[in-house]
Design brief:
This protein is α+β, with helices and mostly antiparallel strands. It is built from 17 helices and 34 strands. The structure holds beta-D-glucopyranose. The site of beta-D-glucopyranose has 12 residues, from loops.
């Protein structure tokens, strides 16, 4: 585990002041740069040592058979794995005749800084070769937010105390050797040499490699161009072969003299475009980047991020670690989604191969809320991607004998890749999660064009699924049986409360949207009878509640199950799914991740305040948080029901998930949903923001430790700033037409230039419920 203090605590950057090879894999994830289209892990420039080399392109994957000992109808037969594509970040260095490899010689200093305001990854190091030649290397790396196919590196080597011959090899390398991966199911499959060469070229300073994948049949081109600045002795040459393009520069440097290489890399890929078309695409992108120049790319990056921070920054006074962590989180979520553009936002973004690069409900439930209020156009793009995958989702529904669309539990291109039914396809709630993201986006932006073109279709097809999956009983109640809710330690349950409430909202939203857009609805075959069926099902939706206990059940009969033997489960046996059989987890009360508690957050208006408090107290001692998606949700509900200190502990867990490697798998890539959960915890937890009424609702409450929390929300073309201190909150409309909001039930109309201040009620200090032994979140003191 990385100690969090591996990184200096600074408000706007992540600084690592020495290189620790034991945690190289984690730092490669943390220092990833990406724009959602192209992603480079934070591998060292010279390629080695490395833990997991990673260059990823959104959607580029290879297919492989999913074998079953006993096949069954409807099992997905083909898996998909995001692949490590051509590495364009490689820059090798020879110092006199010694390879610059930090495992040899003496590393005098090594610092890496991810600057969250400029979007640049800097590295400075000083190294003495085994024969005593010292060089200083400075590099800066970016993946451009403004030119989505472009990544670039500025690399400088300086002779320190003696005349030194240096040779720099700037490369494109395909089919890099990958390390063997362990048996953890959350780790991705390592597919070896899956890029088949099609073309290679090296002309002057330009390099190009084109490959394709055998089974998924995608064509991938990478090209690089260079600018060189060095002394008179500088010479260069280039060459290429199937899997390597190499541009070599040599120079003799006097002490203090430098050789500088600016490397521009472009990527292009397609499942349908021809070789000449993809080749021209990367050449054109490269020419564009060359015209912009290195400094131009750096300036554009800054300008893009200035805009983002203006609308999305969160200020946290009183806890410098959380301040840093939340900016780190916002930055990485932006990196995952900003230019994904009609492709998915995977659970790990483009930072590692964990979960095979698949996208899950993580996107719609955790990532898109943040982006809705900070970068709404990314949300429209992500939901367009879902819309583009509707043909596969409809086909899956037909295969399962259902109507409408069944969206995949995990996927890259829209096809179901989960070979395990109970924790895969049975998690039908993903359909309602997508619908909720559609509804939230439309609600928050008023984008009627999107509603007409995308919203109607997604809402109608997801509603159809629920109507065909559920049934009315003889008394008219509507039930949805045999599904898996968010808690994956419970499977194939009847009437999962979360699923039913979310499905109900989905059905209602579909009926409403069909009424607002009759033409689009008619084109999808919706008639009045069908819409009435949706409304009836929503109205009659069953929500399991045990009167005797005054409790909601996670699913029908849940509270009657035996309780997991927490007392006899030592802490090293968590996560439970790696140490106990699912059959045993499934038949006990033990909650992997917030499920009923998530329902109370996202469908809060379906619960009374006292029910929320009782439910929270009941489920808290059962919830083990074996998923990184849990802490932020528990933070929100702990804050709402009055356990503000506990909420703050949960916030710390969500915020430090990757910086402190809490789940010990940051090496496989960042937990993008948990990073987004930092925003969820602060904005929905301590800001108390909810969006299920007519207007945005706030009920702020700060933990003792924080003296101030300020965040912005983009809402219907306005920018609202919420600034909370221990005793009051000020709402400021920064731009736009007057806006109505609710402060704990009081509706306030805000106008530009007239901030409104209201008192903040001190939280009632209730005795906090206990967690299962050993599973208490680390107290933030
Ligand atoms: C969680 C899922 C989540 C997936 C990817 C699993 O461990 O239980 O809810 O979607 O990880 O993050």
């Amino acid at each position: 585990m990385i100690s969090h203090y591996a990184y200096a605590v600074e408000p706007w950057c992540l600084r690592e002041t020495e290189l620790n090879l034991d945690v190289l894999a984690q730092s490669e994830s943390v220092f990833s740069v990406s724009n959602g289209h192209v992603g480079w892990r934070g591998n060292l420039d010279e390629g080695e040592p490395h833990a997991l080399p990673g260059s990823y392109l959104n959607g580029v994957h290879e297919q492989h058979p999913l074998p079953y000992a006993e096949a069954g109808y409807g099992f997905p037969e083909s898996g998909q794995t995001m692949i490590n594509v051509t590495n364009g970040k490689l820059i090798r260095l020879l110092v006199d005749d010694e390879p610059f490899d930090l495992r040899y010689g003496r590393l005098r200093s090594h610092e890496r800084v991810l600057d969250l305001r400029t979007g640049l990854l800097h590295r400075v190091c000083e190294w003495t070769s085994p024969v005593g030649k010292t060089v200083r290397v400075r590099s800066t790396r970016l993946v451009s937010f403004t030119q989505r196919a472009i990544a670039a590196v500025a690399y400088e080597v300086e002779a320190v105390d003696a005349r030194t011959s240096v040779v720099v090899q700037s490369e494109l390398v395909a089919n890099e050797q990958l390390p063997a991966l362990g048996g953890d199911p959350r780790v991705g499959a390592a597919l070896k040499s899956c890029l088949r060469p099609e073309e290679h070229a090296a002309v002057d300073m330009r390099l190009r490699l084109v490959h394709h994948t055998a089974a998924s049949n995608q064509r991938i081109a990478a090209a690089a161009d260079h600018e060189v600045r060095g002394p008179g002795s500088t010479r260069s040459s280039s060459e290429s072969a199937d899997d390597v393009g190499r541009f070599t520069v040599s120079a003799d440097l006097d002490p203090g003299e430098t050789l500088r290489i600016e490397k521009f890399v472009s990527y292009g890929w397609s499942g349908i475009r021809s070789l000449p078309a993809v080749r021209d695409q990367v050449e054109a992108a490269l020419t564009g980047a060359r015209n912009t120049g290195w400094q131009g790319l750096v300036d554009q990056q800054r300008e893009y991020l200035d805009g983002f921070w203006h609308r999305a920054d969160i200020e946290v006074d009183g806890d410098a670690e959380i301040q840093q962590a939340v900016r780190f989180a916002l930055f990485h979520v932006l990196q995952a989604g900003s230019r994904a553009e009609q492709r998915s936002i995977p659970a790990k973004g483009l930072t590692g191969s964990g979960y095979d690069g698949h996208a899950f409900w993580d996107t719609e439930t955790f990532v898109l809320p943040l982006l809705t209020y900070a970068s709404p156009n990314c949300v429209a793009e992500a939901l367009h991607w879902r819309q583009n995958t509707l043909p596969a989702a409809r086909a899956r529904a037909r295969q399962l004998g259902l109507r409408g669309a069944v969206f995949p539990w995990r996927t890259i291109d829209g096809a179901e890749c989960s070979g395990y039914w109970p924790a895969g396809t049975a998690a039908f709630h993903i359909n309602a999660d997508i619908a909720a993201a559609v509804v939230r986006y439309i609600w928050a932006t008023g984008d009627t064009d999107f509603e007409r073109r995308t919203g109607v279709e997604l809402l109608v097809e997801t509603a159809r699924l629920w109507h065909s999956l559920g049934h009315h009983d003889s008394g008219g109640r509507f039930h949805i049986d045999g599904v898996t809710g968010p808690d994956e330690y419970s499977a194939l349950a009847n009437d999962n409360t979360y699923t039913n409430l979310m499905a109900g909202a989905n059905l209602r939203a579909a009926a409403e949207v069909a009424a607002r857009h009759p033409e689009q609805a008619a084109a999808l075959g919706v008639d009045e009878e069908e819409a009435a069926g949706w409304r009836d099902a929503a109205k009659a939706m069953s929500v399991p509640y045990v009167n005797a206990l005054g409790l909601h059940e996670q699913s029908a009969g849940y509270t009657g199950l035996d309780v997991w033997d927490f007392a006899d489960t030592p802490r090293e046996l968590y996560p439970l799914m790696l140490h106990f059989p699912y059959f045993d987890l499934y038949r006990k009360q033990v909650v992997k991740q917030a499920d009923l508690v998530l329902a109370m957050y996202l469908c809060g208006d379906a619960f009374e305040a006292d029910q929320k408090a009782r439910n929270f107290a009941y489920y808290e001692p059962l919830t083990v948080r074996d998923s990184s998606l849990s802490a932020c949700v528990q933070c929100v509900m702990a804050a709402e029901v009055g356990h503000v200190r506990l909420a703050f502990d949960y916030l710390g867990e969500a915020a430090l998930m990757d910086l402190a490697d809490l789940e010990k798998n940051t090496r496989d890539g960042l937990h993008i949903a948990s990073l987004a959960g930092t925003w969820v915890g602060l904005v929905a937890g301590f800001g108390g923001m909810r969006d299920h009424g007519d207007v945005l609702y706030f009920a702020p409450r700060l933990p003792e430790r924080l003296s101030r929390l300020a965040f912005s929300v983009l809402i219907r073309q306005r920018c609202l700033r919420v600034d909370i201190t221990g005793s009051q909150v000020t709402y400021t409309l920064r731009e736009g037409e007057p806006l109505r909001i609710s402060h704990g039930g009081e509706v306030i109309t805000l106008s530009e230039g007239s901030p409104q201040t209201r008192p903040v009620e001190p939280p009632t200090a209730l005795p906090a419920p206990a967690q299962p032994p050993g599973r208490r979140p680390e107290p933030r003191r």
